[in-house]
């Protein structure tokens, strides 16, 4: 072979090696040198931006914490862009985007009208307090967390962590509420969920209404009250319109779920997956700390604003629990007997 031909052949080999190297080390997450890949994700939620509403906003603050932790601990290899205030859509729409692979991260509550099994998180009086929540679902090895992960995986996503979230009481503008019977004359706003509807529809005039319309609804007397967390009553300033809150704590709301779309989760190398898990659980622990701190001050704030807080006696609370348990067969049918039985067993196992 002539010198000229050898030179051309060598040049072609070098060129092919360069192209092969460039293709293998670029933006392909499966590449062998994952440190060269930067993952930029969008994270959507309905919760308020803590930059504009820092008080009584444990969900918004914990999302901000998660975003910051991931960026810091991944050393910039994962960059998460937060979108608050339903900018990318309401909860159901966000979860649907996640399932279709159009959104990387969702922070919120997957709704039962997407998958009936998610209604299990709405079972009335499933938990008595935050300690029970932590043991059953808000920790990495909790039995109900593991079960919930299975449901989410079947929806093309990965449940990374669950926070302590909140318990929901009852607020209204007409009169004190101590028993289930006290609701008979009230028009009550509920959120769209089969289990929520089951609980409220027979004991009051229940109507589904978007959260964004609640303040005006109370103002115009379209509704008399709503089931809501005490901290949220403060942050939404409903105390400007009504005077009565009761700590019925009828439902633990699974609002603190960090969920990542399957195709985006699968792209991550194992070291980054571990970082994301660690950051998610740290952020959810922070959510619980903030919520408990907020709850302590919420009662003081409500009282200062003229709201009468009715704290149930043990006997009165048992009356609410007995009513909830009378619905168990209907709830079991709504979410599926197999799912219901598995959830009850998981909660028992955690005690």
Automatic annotation (TrEMBL):
Residues spanning the membrane: none
CDD domains, per the entry: PBP2_TRAP_Siap_TeaA_like
GO BP annotations, alphabetical order: transmembrane transport
InterPro entries recorded: DctP_fam (IPR018389), TRAP_DctP_sf (IPR038404)
Keywords: Signal, Transport
Signal peptide per UniProt: 1-22
Family listed: Belongs to the bacterial solute-binding protein 7 family.
Cross-referenced PANTHER family: C4-DICARBOXYLATE-BINDING PROTEIN DCTB, PTHR33376
This protein's name: C4-dicarboxylate ABC transporter substrate-binding protein
